[in-house]
Amino acid sequence: MLSSILVPLVPVILCIGTGYLIARVGWVRAAAVPDLSNILFLLLTPALLFRTMGQVHLQELDFRPVGLYFASAALLFGATLAWAPFTTATAARALAHTFSNTVMIGVPLISLVYGPAGLVALFTLVSLHSLVLLTAATLVFELAQARAGADDGHSMARTVWQAVRGSIVHPVPLPILAGLLFAQTGLPLPEVVDKPLQMLGAALGPMALLLVGIALAHTRIGAHWRGALRIAAIKNLVMPSTLAALAWALGLSGPAVAVMFTASALPVGANVLYFTQRYGVMQEEVSSAIAISTALALATVPLALAAARLFM
Questions:
Q1: pLDDT at 60 exceeding the cut of 80
Q2: b/e map 210-220, b = 16+ CB within 10 Å
Q3: Which membrane topology term applies here (predicted)?
C-alpha cells in the first residue's frame, strides 16, 4: 500500500527538486519566472484543459463532490473570519486557508494518481474554483475595507463584477467551458489539432512542477514564518480534515470525492498572493505561506493520498 502511494509522488518530488536545484545554481533566474508562468498558464494549461474536457459529456459530470469541496471551504472560510477581527488581513488568511494550488501541483498529481477520470473530476472543480472562491473573497475584502473606512469610493457591485468576469475570461475556465461545448457537438477533434494539443498538454505536468521548484528557490521566507506556518498547517491539514468530516457526515464517497479530498490537501494557490497585492495587505506573510505550504506538502500529501483511499 505504501509503495502504491509513494510511486506516483516520486516524479512529483524529483521534478520540484530539479526545478529548485537549477534555480539555486543560477540556470534559471528570478526574472524568468513570470515568462515561464505565462507559457504554463497561457499555452500548456489551456491545451490540456480543452483536450480533456472536449471528450466529456455534461451528463457524465457529477457536481456533488464539487459541492462538498465548496461547502468545506465555506466552513473553514467562515470559521477564520469568526475567529479574528473582521479586517482585510483576516480575509487574506481565510482565502489562503481555502484556496488550493489546483493547476501547477494539482493537475500533474491527480493525473499520476487518479488518471483521466480523476482529471475530469478535478477540472470540474477548477472550472468553478476561482469563480466561487475569488468572487466570495472580493465581497469579503470589500466589506472589510469599507468597515475600516478605507473604501476608495468605487462601487462594490463593479468590483464584484470585475472579479466574476476575470474568473471566467481566464486561461483556465475558458478552455474548460469551450471543451465542454465542443464535446456536446459529438464531433471528433481533427488529428491535425488533436496531436499538437496532446503534445502541449503532456508538457504541462513536468513544466508546472519544475516551476514550483524554481519559485521555491527564489522565495524568501523572511520574518513572517510563524504566521506563514500557521496558514500552511491549516491549508494542508485542517482543510482536508474539514472536507473528510463533512463527507462522512453526508455519507459521500467514491473516486471523485477522493479527488476532492486530495485537492483540498494541496498547498496555497498563487491567486491568493495576487489578492493581497491588490489590497495591499499580508503580501509577505502569504508569499511565505505559499512557499512553506508547498514544501510542507511533500510530507502532508502522501498522508492525504493514504487517507483518500478510504473514500474509494
A1: no
A2: bbbbbbbbbbe
A3: Multi-pass membrane protein
pTM: 0.81
Cβ–Cβ < 8 Å for 163, 138 = yes
Check whether 175 has a pLDDT greater than 80: yes
What residue type is assigned to position 255 of the chain?
A: P
Which of 120, 94, 27 is CA-nearest to residue 279?
94
pLDDT single digits (tens) 119-153: 989 988 887 776 677 777 777 777 776 666 545 55
**Hey, where are the domains in the chain?**
2-311
- Spatial distance between the Cα atoms of 219 and 297, rounded to a whole number of angstroms: 16
- Provide the 3-class DSSP secondary structure of residue 12: helix
CATH number of the domain located at residue range(s) 2-311 in this protein: 1.20.1530.20
Q: How far apart are CA 40 and CA 42, in angstroms?
A: 6
Amino acid at 67: G
Please list, in sequence order, all residues whose beta carbon lies within 8 angstroms of the beta carbon of residue 7, skipping any fewer than 6 positions away.
Answer: none
Tell me how far apart the alpha carbons of residues 7 and 10 are, in angstroms, rounded to a whole number. Answer: 5
Grid coordinates belonging to 276: 493581497
